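Milestone 3.1: sequence recovery, worked example.
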């Protein structure tokens, strides 16, 4: 009987050791696969707030400060996510040198017998390049290729959005800019010079009108600036004069000027 008991215990111990070895081997395989697939594994204990990160995190978050910031942000995200039902989410995390990275978090919850989340195991998949490519495509779809300001459709959408969200007490300015004798410039100097002049006009607008503005090309040689929350008309007129000088300084020898119209947007006006 004693021998049988000892034998049973030995079998149990051996089985347990083998199971642990299989689990360790499996975990090592997951680590290797995660390394090859640009994935970052983690395990989060909801009760103790303990977060375990795989060694690979040290390759992306090279400083202790950035690693601590990521751990803090990930804890906050997982603690919030522990009460929800989502298995995949997009999370933005701080990288080194004031950069930001985008990751897809894939989670699996382990619950206790009451159905409460006890542990979350998961992985972060780096999708920063895909997000950057998407943002670049979105930017290109919104911007006029020649001048670098918003195209007509985007300008309209952004202005309408501002009008919907505008505080009734806020004062906005809508500025229309038209290049005088643009057809003459095209006919006399050629379309290449005409395009360069429009490009210069766009650069001057971006240089002078920087804050709280929507700058767009409405079509041809017609541009606009929608300026939100202007304190009064005085700075609007001052900026218009500054823009006119800046633009003409860059087109000397061509006798080019611009016409500028200003409208004030306030409560009760469409």
């Amino acid at each position: 009987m004693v021998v049988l008991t000892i034998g049973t215990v030995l079998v149990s111990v051996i089985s347990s050791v083998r199971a642990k070895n299989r689990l360790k081997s499996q975990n090592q395989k997951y680590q290797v696969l995660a390394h090859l697939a640009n994935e970052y594994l983690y395990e989060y204990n909801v009760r103790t707030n303990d977060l375990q990160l795989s060694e690979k995190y040290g390759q992306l978050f090279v400083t202790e400060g950035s690693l601590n910031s990521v751990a803090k942000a990930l804890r906050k995200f997982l603690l919030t996510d522990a009460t929800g039902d989502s298995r995949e989410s997009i999370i933005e995390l701080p990288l080194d040198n004031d950069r930001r990275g985008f990751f897809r978090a894939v989670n699996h919850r382990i619950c206790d017998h009451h159905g409460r989340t006890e542990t979350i195991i998961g992985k972060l998949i780096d999708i920063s390049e895909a997000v950057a490519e998407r943002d670049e495509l979105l930017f290109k779809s919104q911007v006029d290729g020649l001048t670098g300001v918003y195209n007509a459709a985007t300008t309209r959408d952004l202005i309408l959005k501002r009008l919907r969200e505008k505080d009734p007490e806020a004062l906005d300015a809508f500025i229309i800019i038209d290049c005088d004798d643009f057809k003459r410039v095209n006919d006399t100097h050629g379309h290449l010079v005409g395009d360069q002049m429009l490009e210069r006009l766009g650069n001057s607008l971006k240089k002078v009108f920087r804050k709280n503005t929507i700058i767009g090309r409405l079509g041809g040689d017609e541009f606009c600036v929608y300026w939100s929350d202007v304190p009064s008309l005085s700075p609007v007129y001052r900026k218009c004069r500054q823009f006119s000088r800046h633009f003409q300084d860059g087109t000397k020898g061509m006798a080019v000027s611009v016409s500028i119209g200003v409208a004030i947007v306030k409560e009760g006006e469409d």
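The first strand starts at residue 39 and ends at 45. The domain at 37-133 is CATH 3.30.450.20 (Beta-Lactamase).
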